[in-house]
Design brief:
3 helices, single chain, 389 residues, mainly beta, two-stranded antiparallel ribbon
Protein backbone atom coordinates (compact mmCIF):
# COMPACT_ATOMS: atom_id res chain seq x y z
CA UNK A 1 0.00 0.00 0.00
CA UNK A 2 2.79 2.44 0.93
CA UNK A 3 4.62 1.76 -2.38
CA UNK A 4 1.45 2.33 -4.38
CA UNK A 5 0.75 5.62 -2.57
CA UNK A 6 4.33 6.78 -3.16
CA UNK A 7 4.10 5.89 -6.85
CA UNK A 8 0.83 7.79 -7.18
CA UNK A 9 2.43 10.79 -5.48
CA UNK A 10 5.35 10.79 -7.94
CA UNK A 11 2.97 10.49 -10.91
CA UNK A 12 0.88 13.41 -9.67
CA UNK A 13 3.98 15.57 -9.19
CA UNK A 14 5.15 14.72 -12.71
CA UNK A 15 1.74 15.55 -14.16
CA UNK A 16 1.69 18.78 -12.16
CA UNK A 17 5.03 19.77 -13.63
CA UNK A 18 3.65 19.34 -17.12
CA UNK A 19 0.53 21.34 -16.20
CA UNK A 20 2.70 24.21 -14.98
CA UNK A 21 4.29 24.51 -18.42
CA UNK A 22 0.95 24.47 -20.19
CA UNK A 23 -0.60 26.94 -17.72
CA UNK A 24 2.20 29.45 -18.26
CA UNK A 25 1.40 29.45 -21.98
CA UNK A 26 -2.36 29.86 -21.46
CA UNK A 27 -2.02 32.62 -18.85
CA UNK A 28 -4.08 31.32 -15.95
CA UNK A 29 -3.24 30.26 -12.40
CA UNK A 30 -4.12 27.03 -10.69
CA UNK A 31 -3.33 24.65 -7.87
CA UNK A 32 -3.12 20.92 -7.25
CA UNK A 33 -3.04 19.26 -3.85
CA UNK A 34 -2.78 15.64 -2.74
CA UNK A 35 -2.89 14.47 0.89
CA UNK A 36 -2.80 11.07 2.57
CA UNK A 37 -3.85 10.58 6.21
CA UNK A 38 -3.09 7.49 8.28
CA UNK A 39 -5.23 7.06 11.41
CA UNK A 40 -4.95 4.06 13.77
CA UNK A 41 -8.27 2.47 14.74
CA UNK A 42 -8.02 0.62 18.09
CA UNK A 43 -7.46 -2.08 18.96
CA UNK A 44 -5.54 -3.33 15.89
CA UNK A 45 -6.80 -1.65 12.73
CA UNK A 46 -6.26 1.56 10.81
CA UNK A 47 -7.85 3.86 8.26
CA UNK A 48 -6.24 5.67 5.34
CA UNK A 49 -7.81 8.79 3.88
CA UNK A 50 -6.91 10.44 0.59
CA UNK A 51 -7.84 14.01 -0.33
CA UNK A 52 -7.35 15.53 -3.77
CA UNK A 53 -7.70 19.28 -4.32
CA UNK A 54 -7.81 20.98 -7.71
CA UNK A 55 -8.36 24.60 -8.63
CA UNK A 56 -7.80 27.25 -11.27
CA UNK A 57 -8.40 30.96 -11.76
CA UNK A 58 -8.75 32.74 -15.08
CA UNK A 59 -10.02 36.25 -15.83
CA UNK A 60 -11.93 36.67 -12.57
CA UNK A 61 -13.43 33.17 -12.63
CA UNK A 62 -12.19 30.50 -10.24
CA UNK A 63 -13.00 26.84 -9.75
CA UNK A 64 -12.05 24.62 -6.81
CA UNK A 65 -12.70 20.97 -6.10
CA UNK A 66 -11.89 18.85 -3.04
CA UNK A 67 -12.50 15.09 -3.12
CA UNK A 68 -12.07 12.72 -0.19
CA UNK A 69 -11.78 8.91 -0.04
CA UNK A 70 -10.93 6.39 2.65
CA UNK A 71 -10.67 2.59 2.75
CA UNK A 72 -14.45 2.27 2.63
CA UNK A 73 -14.74 4.36 -0.54
CA UNK A 74 -15.93 7.82 -1.52
CA UNK A 75 -16.49 10.16 1.45
CA UNK A 76 -16.91 13.73 0.28
CA UNK A 77 -16.87 16.11 -2.64
CA UNK A 78 -16.84 19.89 -2.49
CA UNK A 79 -17.08 22.10 -5.57
CA UNK A 80 -16.71 25.86 -5.48
CA UNK A 81 -17.25 28.41 -8.24
CA UNK A 82 -16.48 32.12 -7.96
CA UNK A 83 -17.04 34.96 -10.41
CA UNK A 84 -15.51 38.39 -9.72
CA UNK A 85 -17.20 41.21 -11.65
CA UNK A 86 -15.57 44.07 -9.76
CA UNK A 87 -18.28 45.57 -7.59
CA UNK A 88 -20.26 42.32 -7.75
CA UNK A 89 -19.08 38.90 -6.67
CA UNK A 90 -20.97 35.64 -7.24
CA UNK A 91 -20.01 32.32 -5.71
CA UNK A 92 -21.52 28.88 -5.32
CA UNK A 93 -20.49 25.87 -3.28
CA UNK A 94 -21.91 22.34 -3.59
CA UNK A 95 -21.14 19.55 -1.11
CA UNK A 96 -21.67 15.81 -1.05
CA UNK A 97 -20.86 13.94 2.22
CA UNK A 98 -21.18 11.35 0.64
CA UNK A 99 -24.69 12.15 -0.65
CA UNK A 100 -25.87 15.70 -1.29
CA UNK A 101 -25.58 17.80 1.87
CA UNK A 102 -25.43 21.48 0.94
CA UNK A 103 -25.66 23.99 -1.89
CA UNK A 104 -24.89 27.63 -1.14
CA UNK A 105 -25.23 30.50 -3.62
CA UNK A 106 -23.82 33.88 -2.55
CA UNK A 107 -24.06 37.30 -4.19
CA UNK A 108 -21.99 40.19 -2.81
CA UNK A 109 -22.23 43.84 -3.86
CA UNK A 110 -19.88 46.63 -2.79
CA UNK A 111 -20.65 50.28 -3.59
CA UNK A 112 -19.05 53.38 -2.02
CA UNK A 113 -17.93 51.60 1.14
CA UNK A 114 -21.25 49.81 1.65
CA UNK A 115 -21.28 46.02 1.31
CA UNK A 116 -24.40 43.97 0.73
CA UNK A 117 -24.53 40.20 0.53
CA UNK A 118 -27.13 37.49 0.36
CA UNK A 119 -26.60 33.74 0.67
CA UNK A 120 -29.20 31.20 -0.42
CA UNK A 121 -28.65 27.78 1.16
CA UNK A 122 -30.28 24.44 0.39
CA UNK A 123 -29.22 21.83 2.94
CA UNK A 124 -30.03 18.30 3.92
CA UNK A 125 -30.80 18.60 7.65
CA UNK A 126 -31.86 14.96 7.89
CA UNK A 127 -29.75 11.84 7.53
CA UNK A 128 -28.41 9.79 4.63
CA UNK A 129 -31.20 7.26 5.12
CA UNK A 130 -33.93 9.90 5.63
CA UNK A 131 -33.10 13.13 3.78
CA UNK A 132 -34.85 16.31 4.89
CA UNK A 133 -34.18 19.31 2.67
CA UNK A 134 -34.64 22.84 3.95
CA UNK A 135 -33.93 26.33 2.66
CA UNK A 136 -32.12 29.13 4.47
CA UNK A 137 -31.08 32.67 3.62
CA UNK A 138 -28.51 35.00 5.19
CA UNK A 139 -28.56 38.73 4.43
CA UNK A 140 -25.52 40.81 5.38
CA UNK A 141 -25.14 44.59 5.30
CA UNK A 142 -21.92 46.27 6.46
CA UNK A 143 -20.13 49.57 6.15
CA UNK A 144 -16.97 51.25 7.42
CA UNK A 145 -18.15 54.82 7.80
CA UNK A 146 -15.66 57.30 9.34
CA UNK A 147 -13.03 57.49 12.08
CA UNK A 148 -12.55 53.76 12.46
CA UNK A 149 -16.26 53.14 12.99
CA UNK A 150 -17.96 50.21 11.28
CA UNK A 151 -21.33 48.50 11.48
CA UNK A 152 -22.43 45.03 10.42
CA UNK A 153 -25.91 43.56 10.34
CA UNK A 154 -26.59 39.90 9.54
CA UNK A 155 -30.10 38.44 9.32
CA UNK A 156 -30.92 34.76 9.08
CA UNK A 157 -34.12 33.21 7.71
CA UNK A 158 -34.18 29.48 8.32
CA UNK A 159 -30.56 29.82 9.49
CA UNK A 160 -28.82 30.27 12.87
CA UNK A 161 -25.20 30.50 14.12
CA UNK A 162 -24.73 33.64 12.04
CA UNK A 163 -21.47 34.50 13.79
CA UNK A 164 -19.87 31.82 11.59
CA UNK A 165 -20.18 34.23 8.65
CA UNK A 166 -17.68 36.37 10.61
CA UNK A 167 -15.23 33.45 10.88
CA UNK A 168 -16.79 32.45 14.19
CA UNK A 169 -15.34 35.53 15.92
CA UNK A 170 -17.69 36.62 18.71
CA UNK A 171 -15.49 39.46 19.97
CA UNK A 172 -13.30 41.04 17.22
CA UNK A 173 -10.73 42.86 19.37
CA UNK A 174 -10.40 40.00 21.85
CA UNK A 175 -9.73 37.71 18.91
CA UNK A 176 -7.01 40.06 17.67
CA UNK A 177 -5.26 40.41 21.02
CA UNK A 178 -5.48 36.68 21.74
CA UNK A 179 -3.57 35.90 18.55
CA UNK A 180 -0.96 33.74 20.31
CA UNK A 181 -3.65 31.50 21.80
CA UNK A 182 -5.26 31.12 18.37
CA UNK A 183 -1.86 30.38 16.84
CA UNK A 184 -1.29 27.50 19.26
CA UNK A 185 -4.84 26.16 18.90
CA UNK A 186 -4.60 26.05 15.11
CA UNK A 187 -1.00 24.86 14.71
CA UNK A 188 -1.94 21.20 14.31
CA UNK A 189 -5.74 21.34 14.22
CA UNK A 190 -7.78 20.50 11.13
CA UNK A 191 -9.58 23.67 9.97
CA UNK A 192 -13.24 23.54 10.94
CA UNK A 193 -16.10 24.28 8.57
CA UNK A 194 -17.66 27.48 9.87
CA UNK A 195 -21.16 27.19 8.42
CA UNK A 196 -24.41 28.74 9.45
CA UNK A 197 -26.86 26.05 10.56
CA UNK A 198 -29.96 25.56 8.43
CA UNK A 199 -33.08 24.70 10.44
CA UNK A 200 -36.53 23.53 9.43
CA UNK A 201 -38.87 26.18 8.07
CA UNK A 202 -38.07 29.38 6.21
CA UNK A 203 -38.78 31.87 9.02
CA UNK A 204 -36.85 34.63 10.75
CA UNK A 205 -34.48 32.89 13.17
CA UNK A 206 -31.62 35.17 14.16
CA UNK A 207 -30.24 38.69 13.84
CA UNK A 208 -26.67 39.77 14.63
CA UNK A 209 -25.66 43.42 14.84
CA UNK A 210 -22.03 44.47 15.41
CA UNK A 211 -20.59 47.94 15.99
CA UNK A 212 -16.82 48.53 16.09
CA UNK A 213 -14.69 51.58 16.91
CA UNK A 214 -10.92 51.77 16.48
CA UNK A 215 -9.92 55.43 16.76
CA UNK A 216 -6.79 57.08 18.18
CA UNK A 217 -6.01 54.15 20.45
CA UNK A 218 -9.57 53.54 21.65
CA UNK A 219 -10.99 50.13 20.73
CA UNK A 220 -14.58 49.19 21.45
CA UNK A 221 -17.26 46.92 20.04
CA UNK A 222 -20.73 45.63 20.71
CA UNK A 223 -22.22 42.46 19.25
CA UNK A 224 -25.89 41.79 19.89
CA UNK A 225 -27.97 38.74 19.01
CA UNK A 226 -31.75 38.61 18.55
CA UNK A 227 -34.17 35.82 17.72
CA UNK A 228 -37.92 35.86 17.06
CA UNK A 229 -38.51 36.25 20.82
CA UNK A 230 -36.27 39.32 21.13
CA UNK A 231 -32.84 39.99 22.65
CA UNK A 232 -30.84 36.83 23.44
CA UNK A 233 -27.28 37.99 24.12
CA UNK A 234 -25.04 41.05 24.01
CA UNK A 235 -21.24 41.26 24.19
CA UNK A 236 -19.33 44.49 24.90
CA UNK A 237 -15.61 45.22 24.49
CA UNK A 238 -13.71 48.30 25.64
CA UNK A 239 -9.96 48.85 25.59
CA UNK A 240 -7.05 51.03 24.64
CA UNK A 241 -3.88 50.69 22.55
CA UNK A 242 -0.60 52.33 23.50
CA UNK A 243 1.99 52.93 20.81
CA UNK A 244 5.51 52.42 22.18
CA UNK A 245 5.89 49.93 23.69
CA UNK A 246 2.91 48.18 22.09
CA UNK A 247 0.63 47.70 25.09
CA UNK A 248 -3.07 46.83 24.81
CA UNK A 249 -5.71 46.62 27.51
CA UNK A 250 -9.16 45.17 26.88
CA UNK A 251 -12.17 44.24 29.00
CA UNK A 252 -15.23 42.42 27.69
CA UNK A 253 -18.58 41.60 29.26
CA UNK A 254 -21.36 39.29 28.09
CA UNK A 255 -25.03 39.74 29.03
CA UNK A 256 -27.90 37.34 28.41
CA UNK A 257 -31.42 38.25 27.25
CA UNK A 258 -32.41 39.33 30.77
CA UNK A 259 -29.31 41.60 31.06
CA UNK A 260 -27.67 39.30 33.60
CA UNK A 261 -23.86 39.14 33.42
CA UNK A 262 -22.71 35.74 32.14
CA UNK A 263 -19.00 36.36 31.47
CA UNK A 264 -16.27 38.94 32.04
CA UNK A 265 -12.80 38.81 30.46
CA UNK A 266 -9.67 40.92 30.91
CA UNK A 267 -6.82 40.89 28.38
CA UNK A 268 -3.37 42.47 28.58
CA UNK A 269 -1.15 42.22 25.50
CA UNK A 270 2.43 43.56 25.52
CA UNK A 271 5.04 43.52 22.75
CA UNK A 272 8.62 44.67 23.39
CA UNK A 273 11.12 44.12 20.59
CA UNK A 274 10.98 40.40 19.76
CA UNK A 275 9.00 39.36 22.88
CA UNK A 276 5.19 39.25 23.11
CA UNK A 277 3.27 38.52 26.31
CA UNK A 278 -0.49 38.04 26.64
CA UNK A 279 -2.58 37.52 29.77
CA UNK A 280 -6.23 36.40 29.64
CA UNK A 281 -8.34 36.32 32.81
CA UNK A 282 -11.87 34.88 32.65
CA UNK A 283 -14.92 35.06 34.91
CA UNK A 284 -18.07 33.07 34.14
CA UNK A 285 -21.43 32.04 35.58
CA UNK A 286 -21.04 29.71 38.58
CA UNK A 287 -22.15 26.11 38.10
CA UNK A 288 -23.76 26.08 41.56
CA UNK A 289 -26.06 28.72 43.09
CA UNK A 290 -24.08 31.77 44.15
CA UNK A 291 -24.93 35.30 45.38
CA UNK A 292 -22.56 36.78 42.80
CA UNK A 293 -23.25 36.56 39.04
CA UNK A 294 -19.77 35.48 37.92
CA UNK A 295 -16.83 33.72 39.54
CA UNK A 296 -13.20 33.22 38.56
CA UNK A 297 -13.11 30.69 35.69
CA UNK A 298 -9.50 30.56 34.56
CA UNK A 299 -6.23 32.29 33.82
CA UNK A 300 -4.04 31.89 30.74
CA UNK A 301 -0.62 33.29 29.87
CA UNK A 302 1.34 33.15 26.63
CA UNK A 303 4.88 34.25 25.89
CA UNK A 304 6.46 34.30 22.44
CA UNK A 305 10.04 35.23 21.58
CA UNK A 306 12.56 34.69 18.80
CA UNK A 307 16.12 33.46 19.24
CA UNK A 308 18.49 32.97 16.28
CA UNK A 309 15.59 32.69 13.84
CA UNK A 310 13.68 30.19 16.01
CA UNK A 311 10.32 31.29 17.44
CA UNK A 312 9.32 29.79 20.78
CA UNK A 313 5.76 30.19 22.09
CA UNK A 314 4.49 28.88 25.40
CA UNK A 315 1.03 28.86 26.97
CA UNK A 316 0.24 28.15 30.62
CA UNK A 317 -3.36 27.57 31.72
CA UNK A 318 -4.89 27.51 35.19
CA UNK A 319 -8.44 26.39 35.96
CA UNK A 320 -11.13 28.00 38.13
CA UNK A 321 -9.38 26.80 41.29
CA UNK A 322 -6.13 28.34 40.00
CA UNK A 323 -4.64 24.88 39.72
CA UNK A 324 -2.36 24.02 36.79
CA UNK A 325 -4.43 22.74 33.86
CA UNK A 326 -2.26 22.75 30.72
CA UNK A 327 1.08 23.77 29.26
CA UNK A 328 1.79 24.16 25.55
CA UNK A 329 5.26 24.63 24.07
CA UNK A 330 5.59 25.45 20.37
CA UNK A 331 8.79 25.78 18.35
CA UNK A 332 8.87 27.13 14.79
CA UNK A 333 11.95 27.49 12.62
CA UNK A 334 12.27 28.52 8.99
CA UNK A 335 15.51 27.69 7.21
CA UNK A 336 14.65 28.39 3.61
CA UNK A 337 13.27 26.30 1.95
CA UNK A 338 12.44 24.17 5.02
CA UNK A 339 9.88 24.98 7.73
CA UNK A 340 9.67 23.03 10.96
CA UNK A 341 7.04 23.24 13.71
CA UNK A 342 6.62 21.35 16.94
CA UNK A 343 3.83 21.55 19.53
CA UNK A 344 4.13 19.72 22.85
CA UNK A 345 1.24 19.50 25.31
CA UNK A 346 1.40 18.78 29.04
CA UNK A 347 -1.49 18.47 31.47
CA UNK A 348 -1.69 17.94 35.23
CA UNK A 349 -0.62 14.30 34.85
CA UNK A 350 2.39 15.02 32.63
CA UNK A 351 3.03 14.60 28.91
CA UNK A 352 -0.25 14.67 26.96
CA UNK A 353 0.65 14.89 23.28
CA UNK A 354 3.06 15.94 20.57
CA UNK A 355 2.60 17.28 17.06
CA UNK A 356 5.46 17.67 14.58
CA UNK A 357 5.14 19.40 11.19
CA UNK A 358 7.71 19.93 8.45
CA UNK A 359 7.56 21.14 4.86
CA UNK A 360 9.92 21.99 2.04
CA UNK A 361 9.27 24.18 -0.99
CA UNK A 362 11.04 23.90 -4.33
CA UNK A 363 10.09 24.86 -7.90
CA UNK A 364 6.61 25.91 -6.75
CA UNK A 365 5.89 22.56 -5.07
CA UNK A 366 5.21 22.29 -1.34
CA UNK A 367 5.87 18.89 0.25
CA UNK A 368 4.71 18.52 3.84
CA UNK A 369 4.17 15.98 6.59
CA UNK A 370 2.60 16.08 10.05
CA UNK A 371 2.64 13.50 12.84
CA UNK A 372 0.57 13.52 16.01
CA UNK A 373 1.09 11.14 18.91
CA UNK A 374 0.68 10.78 22.67
CA UNK A 375 1.97 8.39 25.32
CA UNK A 376 -0.20 5.57 23.90
CA UNK A 377 1.20 5.83 20.37
CA UNK A 378 0.48 7.46 17.02
CA UNK A 379 -2.78 9.39 16.64
CA UNK A 380 -2.40 10.53 13.03
CA UNK A 381 0.17 10.85 10.27
CA UNK A 382 -0.37 13.16 7.31
CA UNK A 383 1.76 13.69 4.24
CA UNK A 384 1.08 15.37 0.92
CA UNK A 385 2.01 18.02 -1.56
CA UNK A 386 0.52 21.13 -3.10
CA UNK A 387 1.46 22.97 -6.26
CA UNK A 388 0.50 26.49 -7.29
CA UNK A 389 1.13 27.81 -10.77
Amino acid sequence: MARVQFAVLLILIAISGYVVGVASDLGFSGSVGFEVTYTPVPPASYDIGVDLALGFDISGFSFASETGFDLSGFQSERIGLTLDLGAVGISEEIRFEPSFSRNELAIDLSIVGVNFGIDWILANIGSVQTPDYSMGAVIELSSGIVSGFSITSITGFGAIDLVNTLDGVRAPFSHELLYLFEYLDEMCATPADLDVTVVSGFYFEEELVRLEVDYQGLIASNTTWFDYMGLTESLFELGYRFGDPALNFLASMTLDGSFAITAIDFIVDLSVDFVRFTSHTSFAEPTVPSPIPVVFAGQRFTVSFEVCGVTVTTETDFDGSFLFAQELVAIEAVIDPVTFKSLTTFDASGFAGECVYADVTFSGVLLYTRAEFDFSGIDRIVFGFSLSF
